[in-house]
Amino acid sequence: MFGKKSHSAKKGWARRLPGVAVVAAVLYSCASVGRIEGGPYDETPPRFVQSTPVPGALNYNNERRKRITIEFDEYIVLEGANEKVVISPPQIQQPEIKTNGKKVVITLQDSLKPNTTYTIDFSDAIQDNNEGNPLYGFAFTFSTGSQIDSMVVAGTVLNAADLEPVKGMLVGLHANLEDSAFTSLPFDRVGRTDSRGQFSIRGVAPGKYRIYGLQDADQNYYFSQAVEQLAFGDSLIIPSMEPAVRQDTFWIDSLTIDTIVERGYTHFMPDDVLLRAFKEQTTCAQRLARSERPKYNEFFFYFTAPADTLPTLKGLNFDERDAFIIEKPTGRIDTLHYWIKDSLLYVQDTLQMSLTYLYTDTLQRLVPRTDTLRLVSKVKPKTAEEKAKEREEKEKQRKKRRKKDEPEPVYTEFLPMDVYAPGTMDIYDYLSLTFQEPVARIDTAAIHLQQKVDTLWNDVPFELLQDSADLKVYNVFADWEWGESYAFSVDSTAIHGLYGLFTDKVKKEFKVKKPEEYGQIFFNVTGTTGPCFVELLDGQDKVLRTVKLVDGKADFYYLNPGKYGARLVEDTNGNGVWDTGLYAGKRQPEQVYYYPQVLELKANFDLLQDWNVLQLPLDKQKPNELKKQKPDEDKKKNRNRNSNRSSSGNSGRGYAY
């Protein structure tokens, strides 16, 4: 039977060990985990020589000998052993792993379990000391029983929201099929994802399993904290194996094949498990985290979670009625910014107040709570004498810099205003005025928008509206005409800030783009049902626009030339946003698909793209150009070095001893 070794076979193996070691070294030099790409192979990683116990040792159950020593043909180092080396079954007490010259020494702290296959998977942690050539996929196996469990389960873990490969996530199997096993028991067998999100779980016995992914924050090998990222499979895992044949290719040079040799191997299945990792949406207990008054004219309240209502503030040494402008900087009520309106109030060193807000009690109920607060300004307001002295000092500095024949300058402090008005305006864009403090009054008659007609400037109508997310921002909307020139101007003193300053005069000229400067992208989508929306992405995977999928179509108009990606979300609940999963409810996160190419759009071009979201498996969909999690550089180097070797044919990826 595949994957089993009898006791007599063990004895035979021990007698043939020297010869087998040589054969293993030869085979290792020929085997590959990469694709056929051509090119020389002139650097080698460390090679296995011998070990204690021997590879595949049986009945190794001496508690006094929980030390494993593995020797190689050259001096070695371990790179990131704590993150890369995985021992299965998982060790609750972390083992000691260190190098000693040409040896790796592993000292297990946990007691050895009876009749259990132990696998130490080194990933690419073992490197030669001189060149840093990593030994990829090296795994060492022994058993405390009379047989070796040799099956392998392999696959990929992707971030559910954006299909990024998830690096360094534990992936484990449970023979206990109850849902509670994942939240109360350590994994039976475990592996870890590499920089491509790929994993291999070795030493698996025949049977039925459930599979999970876990970013194990507390290293207990089960899901115990809401902040831990997780993944779970919907189907049972039933390991199996079958004989198969692969072709190993030997190259004379990068263009000429020397020999193609067929080799038999064991194909372990499943080797294409795909897990989508996510973090559950957690509800934090509501409480006041902190309060501060960084400047004399403003203070902040920070809460641990958003609330539906504003807290009630009552002044103890001041009158709170109409005393503040309240700002929610992020559009939520978990951070509140209070601007003090009255100068007689903000000159006070200390503001005493009571604050009544909703608080989560020990029974997880929201109940009113009142705190008494004393807010002391970290920055004191300047006195009249200090302001006069400051003006006098500035005047002296100006006189020193001023030439004798220059007129006497007049210094005026204005309310800072940032005007967003690009020289070339998109047809769908708008102007913005941004201030550093709330605005008290605006004289709209002193704000002008004009269009150039021939040589004349004609007034055009516009709307000036306060931004819904930031009360210090005002937006200017108008019906722009293609290719026309405009001028936007603000007269001096047109806008009055909360603390007495006025704006200076400003004028900006700009031109609206012509239709031929844009392109369009139209998607015809198949393979999905139910409500969906499509996000248009830039070259950094950031969302530029979102449209609903209507009758299988997602259209994006008036796009600037450039590179674009696209992501589709199956909006199961129709709320217009991607929703995460929930393990307790066995709810997977909403499904995400990527258009498998980055589109390069030129001006005055329309791109019509057919998009079957099911045409490619999920781990092949996201273009490499959009991925933030790139394969490790040393792995890229190794893939190029091994380009004259063919795929091993086994998605277990690597070598097991």
Helix and strand arrangement:
Elements: H1 7-15, H2 17-30, E1 48-52, E2 67-72, E3 76-78, H3 81-84, E4 86-88, E5 96-100, E6 103-107, E7 117-123, E8 126-128, E9 138-143, E10 151-159, E11 170-174, H4 181-184, E12 189-192, E13 198-204, E14 210-214, E15 230-232, E16 240-251, E17 257-269, E18 273-277, E19 288-295, E20 298-303, E21 312-315, E22 324-327, E23 335-340, H5 343-346, E24 350-360, E25 366-376, H6 384-401, E26 417-420, E27 424-425, E28 431-435, E29 439-442, E30 447-453, E31 456-459, E32 463-466, E33 473-477, E34 485-490, E35 495-497, E36 506-512, E37 519-526, E38 532-537, E39 543-548, E40 553-559, E41 562-570, E42 592-594, E43 599-601, E44 606-612, H7 633-641, E45 655-656
Parallel strand pairs: 9-45, 10-18, 27-36, 37-44
Antiparallel strand pairs: 1-2, 2-6, 3-8, 4-7, 5-6, 7-9, 10-13, 11-12, 11-14, 14-15, 16-17, 19-20, 20-23, 21-24, 22-23, 24-25, 26-28, 28-33, 29-35, 30-31, 30-34, 32-33, 34-36, 37-40, 38-39, 38-41, 41-42, 41-43
